[in-house]
Design goal:
Protein name: ATP-binding cassette domain-containing protein
Organism: Dorea formicigenerans
Structural class: alpha/beta
Number of domains: 2
GO molecular function: ATP binding; ATP hydrolysis activity
InterPro entries: AAA+_ATPase (IPR003593), ATPase_AAA_core (IPR003959), Bact_Antivir_Def_Nuclease (IPR051396), P-loop_NTPase (IPR027417)
CATH class of the largest domain: Alpha Beta
Radius of gyration: 23 Å
Keywords: ATP-binding, Nucleotide-binding
Helix content: 40-55%
Length: 272
């Protein structure tokens, strides 16, 4: 499904070369992004791929959008101005009808959102353990402690403990996060979803995204430089490191070639 057909970044030039976000796209020769069911914005650190996602989220007024402070140059809201100068077009449904709004579940999911969820669960684990310890430290017997955990407050603590133990590792927590938030019939902007995931789980997540796009009417725009995600996603890939943001194959990208060269160099060690 294509909910967002295209997006054109502002091409206005400002005199001050340090104004954010205009400075990120200075001297770029860009055509509008034309989106597929899965589109990847590839780029190294500082390339602007996360900035592009946030600009899209702000322009489309999606859940999870993050307001960015432009800089200290006067009182002008340059981020707001840049966003207002961008243009986009809706996609069409299977009958050729142009969408007039984006699905309600659509959202922008940042790597910080995933890390926050992980931290929140870890804090719950510490809190639960601490309360149990304090309860026993105050002189209550094991039987009394067991009776406490049958109360409403105690049951809540048990739920927290089970919840934290079930998702003990960061990677498991991140995968559960995506299971809960990636629902059918929606547009999702994902910023570096590979955070905290092992290579195997990165591939697993990419396969799930493929399935959601192919079978469950989802559209994804993803910022990543993970070779495991890039090689698994059935995606159209824009190389944000290029001045013209050209479309590339995943195996042509610098980060992927780096991995290839590294393992090629150590190939004989794997044969021992």
């Amino acid at each position: 499904m294509i909910y967002l057909s295209s997006f054109k970044l502002s091409d206005r030039n400002v005199k001050n070369p340090n104004i954010y976000p205009y400075n990120v796209f200075r001297r770029k020769d860009m055509e509008p992004f034309v989106f597929a069911p899965i589109t990847v914005l590839y780029g190294n650190n500082g390339s602007g791929k996360s900035t592009i996602l946030n600009i899209i989220a702000n322009k489309l007024m999606l859940k999870g959008k993050e307001y960015a402070a432009s800089n200290s140059f006067g009182i002008v809201d340059y981020c707001g101005k840049f966003s207002s100068e961008c243009q986009f077009s809706y996609g069409e449904d299977e009958f050729g009808n142009v969408f007039k709004r984006f699905p309600e579940n659509s959202r922008f999911i940042k790597s910080e959102d995933i890390l926050y969820e992980i931290k929140k669960i870890q804090q719950r684990q510490i809190l639960s353990d601490g309360m149990e310890y304090d309860y026993m430290k105050n002189g209550y017997s094991r039987k009394e402690a067991e009776e406490y955990f049958q109360t409403r407050e105690g049951r809540h603590q048990i739920e927290y403990i089970e919840f934290a133990q079930e998702k003990y590792s960061n990677g498991e927590t991140a995968m559960q996060f995506f299971e809960e938030y990636l629902l059918p019939d929606a547009l999702y902007l994902l910023d570096e979803p590979e955070v905290s995931l092992s290579p195997a789980n990165q591939v697993l997540l990419a396969k799930e995204i493929n399935k959601l796009a192919r079978l469950l009417s989802c559209q994804f725009i993803i910022a990543t430089h993970s070779p495991f995600m890039l090689g698994t996603l059935d995606a159209k890939i824009y190389n944000i490191d290029k001045e013209d943001y050209s479309i590339c194959k995943w195996y042509e990208l610098e980060n992927v070639r780096y991995f290839y060269d590294f393992f090629k160099k150590h190939e004989k060690e794997f044969e021992e």
